Amino acid sequence: MQSHIVKSFDSETDGLKKKIIELAKNCEQQLSKAIDAFVAMDVDLANAVIAHDEYINHLQRDIEEDAVLFLARRQPMALDLRHLLSVMKIAGELERIADYAANFSKRVSHLKMPPTQEPSDLIVEMAKTCQLMIHDAMDAFLRLDVKKAVAVWHKDDDIDTMFARMVTLVQKQMQENKFDIKDGTGLILMGRCCERIGDHITNMAEDIYFIKTGKTYSGDFEDCYSS
Amino acid sequence: MQAEIINAMSPDAELFQAYSNRTQSMENRSMQVPRGDRRTVGQATVENPKVRCENVDIFYDLGEKKAINNITLDIGQNEVIAMIGPSGCGKSTFLRSMNRMNDTIEGCRMDGKIFLEGKNIYDKDVDVVPLRAQVGMVFQKPNPFPKSIYDNVAYGPKIHGLVRTKNQTDEIVEHSLIRAGLWEEVKDRLDKPGTGLSGGQQQRLCIARTIAVGPEVILMDEPCSALDPIATAIIEDLMDELRKEYSIVIVTHSMQQASRVSQRTAFFHLGDLIEIGPTEQIFLNPIHQLTQDYITGRFG
């Protein structure tokens, strides 16, 4: 984009961008550590993830304060206004994603025994897909790449499918007494965390679509080719 | 389908209409128009306009310099239309053409037609004196006559023969000052000089003076640029009130003001009308790249 006449306008925008990248990077790491903690049943690592959530909350508040100040001081218009509003929303989505990573980790420390292979693999796959989606969504945000944002939006379908499969599987294994009700419920809740993370990432994709087009994404894949 | 759901949910049909119009205008919009394209984008005409400008060209220096290039634009009934653009883009020149104020500038020539309620104001039989009463003007710097507050307002109706008795004059002065939101502040000192009022009050006095001769259109050329934020807010509030009776055209350098007071916004650049559209669209999601560059401060 062409530079702004007021140089400090661009430096403030860049500052916000850097902070949101930092937030996204932290969220990705939180999710990655949560997966590791789950796979290794590592309660210490899980606790570290929970403790780090406060830093993420702090980052989000910081971005929000900067954005409010920017709004008051610069009164952005058009693309700049859409960009700023979306930055505030994306920061909120990322903070919620990190909350789910922390919730996921809490469940790890409550599990009595390591989960069986199949549901465990599905949960890991869901969480890894989420991690990749965050990465792609942030990439789409930085490049204002609508096609990529739309692709991320549709990737959420995979997570929903995996979640449905996982729930059926865990229910079946609970009936077969492969693990107790508490652990089974815990696993479903962990899957649910990933499923909700996927939903928050689709919101991010919608925000990116809005920045670029000024429109709300309808869910139609073709839309990104006409904008 | 989405429309049906919203219709069922919203008891307010008007709100629904506004929503669906907005959604439609967003959906129908084309891709971003590149900087180099000088054709007007957006809807320049409206149904049943108050003023219709058709293919207007304006030249200065006996045709040496073209200030306005083939602009067609309608001013709707009861609307505030804002004209924005960098200095020298022709917005004030275009504004002045609507009450033939350019006639007073030597070497200025205008081609094209401007209709006020169907009558071309550049026809030979049009008298500019009543025309300027019909299309009033408020300037950047408040310019009250060096007379009393009362006389400032009464002068126009008197010379236009709108009043015959003292009672009629009193009535029109009071009514105009009330409409301009100044009555309460000056009713006890109507005999004091208009130039003794504060800047914001003087500007409202000028608006009262314009209203007193029964205009149909009010042209405002940066009416708040010499005023403080409170006086500006009062004028903006007044514009909202005045548009119930008049059409208002405002030239402003403040994007925020344009976005607050107007229903439609026109963006001018180097004599061309680049983009015209609903104000919310111009400031949230303009179609032309030049409009976007200008309103976001990236003009280079």
Notes on the structure:
The complex is a heterodimer of chains A (227) and B (300). Chain A has one domain (7-226): Methane Monooxygenase Hydroxylase, Chain G, domain 1 (Up-down Bundle). In chain A, 85% of the residues lie in helices and 0% in strands. Chain A has helices spanning 7-40, 43-74, 78-110, 117-143, 146-175, 181-213, 223-226. By secondary structure, chain B is an alpha/beta fold. Helix content of chain B is 38%, strand content 21%. The radius of gyration of chain B is 20 Å and the shape is globular. The relative contact order of chain B is 0.17. The A-B interface holds A 1-6, 9, 75-82, 213-215, 227 and B 26-27, 31, 255-256, 259, 283-286, 291-293, 295-300.
| Gyration radius over CA of chain B | 20 Å
Q: What's the rounded overall pLDDT mean of chain A? A: 93
Overall, the morphology of chain B is globular
Based on the coordinates given, report the CATH architecture of chain A. Answer: Up-down Bundle
N-to-C order of helices and strands of chain B: HHEEEHEEHEHHHHEHEHEEHH
**Would you tell me the structural class of the helices and strands of chain A?**
mainly alpha
**Estimated share of beta-strand residues of chain A:** under 5%
Rounded radius of gyration of chain A (Å): 19 Å
- Oligomer state of the chains in this structure: heterodimer
Distance between the termini of chain A: 17 Å
The number of helical segments of chain B is: 12
What's the helical proportion of residues of chain A?
A: over 70%
What name does the CATH topology of the largest domain in chain B carry? Rossmann fold
Mean pLDDT of chain B: 90
